[in-house]
Design a protein that fits this description.
The complex is a heterodimer of chains A (about 725) and B (about 160).
Chain A (H helix, E strand, L loop, with lengths): L1 H10 L5 H14 L5 E4 L8 E4 L22 E2 L5 E2 L11 E3 L3 H13 L18 H4 L33 E3 L3 E3 L3 E6 L3 E8 L2 E9 L1 H4 L4 E7 L2 E8 L6 E5 L2 E5 L15 E8 L7 E9 L1 E8 L2 E9 L9 H4 L2 E2 L2 E2 L5 E4 L6 E9 L7 E8 L5 E3 L3 E11 L7 H6 L1 E2 L5 E11 L6 E9 L8 E4 L2 E12 L2 E11 L5 E8 L4 E8 L2 E7 L2 E8 L7 E9 L1 E7 L4 E9 L6 E10 L7 E9 L3 E4 L10 E3 L4 E14 L4 E16 L2 E12 L1 H5 L6 E5 L2 E5 L3 E6 L4 E7 L6
Parallel strand pairs in A: 21-23
Antiparallel strand pairs in A: 1-2, 3-4, 4-26, 5-21, 6-17, 7-8, 8-9, 9-10, 11-12, 12-15, 13-14, 15-16, 17-18, 18-22, 19-20, 22-23, 24-25, 25-27, 27-28, 27-30, 29-30, 30-31, 31-32, 33-34, 34-35, 35-36, 37-38, 38-39, 39-40, 41-43, 42-43, 43-44, 44-45, 46-47, 47-48, 48-49
Chain B lengths: L1 H25 L2 H18 L6 H21 L1 H6 L17 H8 L2 H11 L5 H8 L3 H14 L14
The chains are: A mainly beta (about 725), B mainly alpha (about 160).
Chain lengths: ~725, ~160
Amino acid sequence: MFEQDYKKAMDGIKPEASSVEATKEAMRNERKPRRVVLIRRLAVACLCLAVISLSIFSAFRISDAFRISSKQPVVGGTDGYVYSDTYFKGAEGIVRADKYGDIYKVLSEYSSNLGNLYHGNGLFTDGLFTNDIKGEMIGIPEDAEAAEAPNDNTDPEHSETNNQVSGVQEADVIKNDGRYIYKYLSDGTIVIISASDGKTEIASKLDVSKLTEGSYYSEMLLCDDTLVLLTSFNGYDNLYCWYSDGEILYDGAAKSESASSLENESRTICTFIDVSDRANPKMIGSNRQSGCYNTSRIVGNILYTVSNYYTNCGGSESDSKVYVPEINGSLIDASDIYMAEKLGNMSYTVITSADLSKDVLSFSSDMAILGISGAMYCSENNFYLTQAVYSSAQIAADDAVEAVESVITSETSVNICTDVYRVALNGGSLVLAAGGSVKGTVLNQFSMDESNGYFRIATTSESYVSGSFTTASNVFVLDAELKAVGVSENLGVSERIKSVRFMGDICYVVTFRQTDPLYAIDLTDPAQPKTLSELKIDGFSTYMQSYGENLLLGIGYDADADSGGTTGIKLTMFDTADNTQIFDAATYTFKWDNSYGSSEALDNHKAILVDPGKNIIGFPYWEENYNYDPISDTANYKSSLKYMFFSYTDGSFVNTAAVTLCKDNDAYYYNSANARGLYIGDYAYIVTDGGVTSLSLSEYKVVSQLTYSDNAN
Amino acid sequence: MRDNDAIEKILEKYSSTVYRIAYLRTRSCHDASDIMQDVFVRYIRALPVFDSEEHEKAWFIRTTLNRTASFFSSAWYRRTAPLDENTVSGAEMPSDSGVIEEVKKLPKDIRTAIHLYYYEDMSVREIAEATGKSESAVKSLLYRGRKLLKLGLETETGTEKG
């Protein structure tokens, strides 16, 4: 296999010892004894100098061990297995911290035990929780009804962010309330555009660049007249800023001047903007929490913000600011911090809640769990956090670094599990309520679902047993305590899950190696999931969504049945009237002949517009046509980014419109991550970082265009 | 004393990573060594503060790519570079295996993407950030690379390696 050969060959390419020596010499000549860093708030006029000693290098002890290897380990022949990354161990028990010292102890033990790889049992059937927190068990409501987002009857019918769960709002770069479009531009401007009957006008622009400068990513949520801007600072040479009482404050670098370890300045900032007067949006406050922004949700009026805070264990126990996450400048209470007693990684998941209906917007509740940073899912009642865990029956390693490179004998069997934790939203008073474990790993948020008092999760499991590697997929049903009550196993042996969608009691799973089995699994009886049907077709879907009664829309790839290679992008409409006999009623393929195409909709559900009621499907499509001559090594490229509209009529897909958004060099470098389609009433609007194009839905004709450089009225 | 340890450690950690990327881009051991030295000297000058292992590695990879780009546009290179990019300069590793030779024949952008994806296990998004291209462009480079290498075409999805 190419990858294996290439890796092996490249391993042999190394710099000559003499040039490494020369480099070392050059570095010694450059070395500075001290590093000088600027800190302080604007309110203080003087500069303070801090010295960060070169003990940042001590952080390198937190070595190679804990990256998730997302590629399969290289399987050697008779040599056994060679891992390019180590694997880490997940939680065997989880406790609440009494004091910060408890956390320090756990982190220290972890750091000094790098050489010991913990042995797990793989599948946990008894749940994870000590008596410590069992008393707070909060069950999953059995008759949870989907709380529809309140719909103002005077607003025209309009599309919303393509949320996974109805009533649970997800953030995006664009929001739509049926009268206005709110768009975040990556240059740090929020544009509010009035949209009505195809006519668009800029209502206002808000410059948030001072807040977002140097940030990694931003997106928005909208709750009535409050717009929430979520910004992620990854702590990478950039100061993070926040809004407070009319000014922008900034801070960065060392929190504690005596800290001898690496400071982590990753932060997630929530800025609240009052848009009750759309012509005059105003920042009214902000919250900040440690860690890079992961995701957020609004349920009812409560905002939940999730970040991942990676820490290390330099410094001393009393330096709690170094290893404990904080919110709005104060450390999270020890009693709100949970930790796995035997850690698998040094990342906290920090979750906060804020009540947007209150006048003063600060945190209602906050908590952090040390040792988790995997995929998440949010229902109206609970957050489910996951963490992949590798366990092995037998490993001999004295030293973590050696373990990374050690050859594991062919007798070793290694299993990968996913620990799952349930955090009850509880109206904004977050509570860690349950924990469990299942075999395999999850793909993304769509692999999980909560319904009728049960939690369902689809995984792909891998096992390496006696020289062979296999995969298979499973759907587990867990109860409120996250104990497995039923499972459908061994789906698609030797394949992997490519997409999952839970719809009521039916779970649709797509696995792929060369052909695409689409499985429909009946979960009506939680203890006995039943595979109803298996449909094999070429290619595979990466995202699926219900398209009205008895129809399931899939977007994904077409592939060559023999080689398994992708050959185009495909829409598929599955007929699910009879789940025991699903078939593909229609397909539409963008074939790659002398071209190549891609779409953000393939892996970002927010980039696809789907409305069965209005019969609209929309997504951006990037295409590149090229002629390449290998002999002269020259190529001629022409790229274009278009927004495609489709409808499903009389049993086939109809391409109702293809609107060119940009082409040639712009399209080659243009990040199409920000093209979104939406509709209000009888008009569709395509919103990009350049402007807004309006189309009538009656004829799919462009009726107007707007660029953001137009002046606000 | 500690500084020397620190220098040793960081070199041990990333010298091969940096060298391999530089070698693949320049196709010359000599130029790759120069670029490697350039990257590490810059590291010592800047002493950037990292948030995590990932950031640290990403910094080294990005800096190496930047430095090779500067290298190609430098006056020195333009004066002394071979007219035909297919002629490789300097003393070559005497026994580059067949697969490396194949990859070296690919156009620069394509072989860079192939190396970052297959050797450094970077995701499409990470490669896009490191190279300044759009994710679509990166997927296109990988697609073309596989086609040119005549690999049994693999699937390339955004969900793989997130």
